Amino acid sequence: MANSVSWLYLIIAIPAASAAVLLLSGKAADAWGHLLGTGASLASFVVAMLAFVKLLGGEASSESAMSLHQELFSWIEVGGFDVTFGLLFDRLSGLFVLLITGVGSLIHIYSIGYMAHDERRRRFFAQLNLFVAAMLMLVLADDYLTLFLGWEGVGLASYLLIGFFQQRTSAAVAAKKAFVVNRVGDMGMALSVMLMFATFGTSTFEGVDSGMEQVSSGTATALGLLLLLAACGKSAQVPLQSWLLDAMEGPTPVSALIHAATMVTAGVYLVTRSSFVYEQTELASTAVVIVGLVTLLWGAIIGCAKDDIKKGLAGSTMSQIGYMMLAAGIGPAAYSFAIFHLLTHGFFKANLFLGAGSVMHAMNDEVDMRRYGALRAVMPITFVTFACGYLAIIGFPGFSGFWSKDKIIEAAFAENVVVGLGALLGAGITAVYMTRMMIMTFISERRWAKEAHPHESSPVMTVPLMVLAVASVFGGVLLFNDWIGNWLEPVVGEGEHHELPLGLTELALTIMVAVVVLIGAGIAVRMYQRDSIATVPSADVSPLTTAARRDLYGDAFNEVALMRPGQSLTRGLVVFDNRGIDGAVNGVAAMVGGSSGRIRRWQSGFVRAYALSMLGGSALVVLALVAVRLA
Amino acid sequence: MSVPWLTILVALPLLGAVGVMMLPRNSDLPKQAAFAISTAVLALSVAVALQYDVDGGFQFVESYPWIESFGARYAVGVDGLGLTLVLLTTILTPVVVLASWNDAEEGRWSINSFFAWMLALEGLAIGVFVATDVFLFYVLFEATLIPIYFLIGGFGGARRSYAAVKFLLFSLFGGLVMLASVVGLYVVSANSESGPSYLLADLMAAEMSQNTERLLFLGFFIAFAVKAPMWPVHTWLPDAASEATPGTSVLLVSVLDKIGTFGMMRFCLGIFPEASQWATPVVIALAVFSVLYGAVVAIGQNDIRRLIAYTSVSHFGFIVLGIFVMNSQGQVGSALYMFNHGLSTAALFLITGFLIARRGSKMISDYGGVEKSAPVLAGVLLVAGLSSLSLPGLSPFVSEFLVLAGTFTKSVTAAVIATLGIVLAALYILLMYQRTMTGPVRESTKSLPDLGARELAAVAPLLALIVVLGFYPKPALDVINPTVDTLLERVGVSDPEPTEAIEELD
Q1: What is the ipTM of this complex?
Q2: Between chains, do A589 and B427 touch, taking CB under 8 Å as contact?
């Protein structure tokens, strides 16, 4: 079985302990809080590296080398319900742990500079640590219920960080929205664990895996759909996507953390980890594919219409996670591509978000790209690193995103031509919105306000950018010799070779993708480079643009379908409770007491009232005696 | 001669109450004495807990004849359920005394009486949880009304008298219905061969016709449902919680209301197992409805204290649900839920009480941006709130999830509907937090002082327990598990097997 080690818990415990110290120690820790937080994240990365090296060193043939395991202590044990805190560092969670702690540490370092002038920087680092620790709990758990602990912990950390600027009402509202929408997904997670318990008597990965083959297709489908609901919440997939765009209210490093290293990747992890569930249910797998496809287009369209640089990137995250979900839904043929894209996306999206943060930092927190332009000259490092991320995300040949997205589109075509075309179209739209962002921010003409004095950021911020840029460029090496596929095979199964439809070859498809990307980029250049960009968006636009600006009416739908009826129900019930029930029960109470007077009169005649009720009681007793004797 | 531990636990706070009344007025002495006494009781109860043998059934048993013609005895003893609730009572009382330090100044009566009534309430509540004689239980159950009536009616908001009387009427109504059943039990046992007895053990063995059992069950159940409180007999709670001082609300909701759900487990299931099963469908439906109803109405509240009261209606729905799904996860979950809800709700009432005392308003709309001036207060309120919405890692999650898991094996529909409660819980807590603590700083709240040392000392132990038991609930589960096993055996049900049980993994 798994290789037992005694230090695996340190990966989670170090950032968790650091968060606790920073939260409890008060102002005394202001001077060194950010250093402790960053150090904790780095230390966790080092331990993770040690564990990973141990996995790498093991012989692929021996079972024991496939994973490291640590059993901590019994959490809940009641009747047949037995949940233990166990950690599982296998080939899948190992990759996640490296991404979370690696990119997470870079974001910590960057934040030292980004949050340097915030008086609550210590608290910020505490919450970053908490976020990382929760996400690590999520991916290291070996049981769905302990995974749920990390799952909701991530929800809490995102709530705190999105609402970090709490005096801004919009930030507070966005934070609450993120948590509540996530809770809708969490219902799916909670119910899936209950169903696992009722069906298998356990919720460990191992137990569910070994039991899945016997279950009815109905149970398998229910499990698959419940887990998908959960994944939709955390990964901001349609229909639970609406929180992600508002989540931009948090400080920019938080966005990088949510979008690249933690949180939104959790849904993809969950689906991939539950491969044994989806193998048994065609219906739920198809649902995953559809959700992924819809979201990848949904997010991409929104991304095209946003003038706020962070919201543009947020739309892009939805879209890219959609690609991953799509791949995960396809099954064993594409699990490793989902994870591959997740890793490369982790690099280039962190790169892009931190780059955007660097720009905002230079521009007095201005986020409107219509007020940027021509920043390449004043911020050369940010420009070059951002350009690397840009080329990676649109899938420019050779860059990391090229390899990973290409593989997903290929798998999509093999699955179904319509799905393939959708994924291809998404790649084109990606090129449109990213090129638009690139032009509006770094190229085109200068449109800054007079008082803006853009400047390059300090090394503490640019060095992480450079590291991430390198990873964005070269992340594709993971595909070399199908390393990633072979690496993940013991966890997600062997990726069978797929036949492409319409007589396409892989090369032809790759060229097709490249052409579509080029067309997309060309459209953006034509629209934004040639004409000058207005500092105020035009109101005279197509209905699609209007819709995209309003997030394709996701919020409007929620408001009409859920919020308004919910508010009416709440108001109605409050009135009902005060008047209806209370009135009725008061009436009964008064009758029982033998008085028809209003309840207020009772306070003066308390003793008399008590005597009266004793009398009534005695009558009842006599009745009861009679009833009982007769019975 | 063994030490009569439980009698000491009951008597010490009652005698302490008398002592506090006799202390000089207008000094800090009554408060200090009350704190010292309740701390001593806590220490004693911990000593009892440490000697408790988890697999030993009822322990520390004492039994003396009391009213021989009824067969009533002074009989006490604790099992896992009783011990948990005794500990809850003894933990919360010193916390409440410390938190209520200055809350009695404007009362109708002296501060001596405020703290004396609190101690009296503690003693009587412990008595209720340890009584193993139904008549003794009934007498103590009714007796708890006296201190709480004076605490609500004498100290608190403008409409406290109205609230106190309303509470009293509801409780008396429930008590009378129960009295009928208590008398009925006498008839049953008097007709048996061994003669009249109110001892729980004897009543469990008593033969009853099906109709008798169901009628007597209803009498107990209705009384406990009023106390718990369940929809639709919950309306006294928001008024009482809104008008009482925060400390009184804690004793009322966290301790006294537990008598309702405690009674359901101990007496309804214990004495009337067949009738309990008979009532199950209706009770589950009412419980699930309470869960959602309490949560939705909580969302619509502007009065912070009423909001917390309605969240409790929702939480009590979960507790009753777990009891009546009749399996070990549900019932252990419910027993643990009683304890956890006690801690969590106490923290909420006390912390919001500190807030209300600073600003002089209990209306959510009068606040905003408090986090800026009182970050510690905001932080502890958030932790308390997160425990109320059952965040994993905090103790209420364990109990709520157990209840849901137990419910799922009984009725998938009920479990799915009840699970909606976790979304609503996020709404009622976070909306309240958002409107009071975040947003722009307002003129009226910008200089609110942060928590003082006394206030922090009062709530810190509660929050610490919530966190520790969230990750390591084993000590509590170890105590509760055997008790629930015995109870389920008594009811005659066993846990359903997993539908596709997998073979033991190595």
Answers
A1: 0.92
A2: no
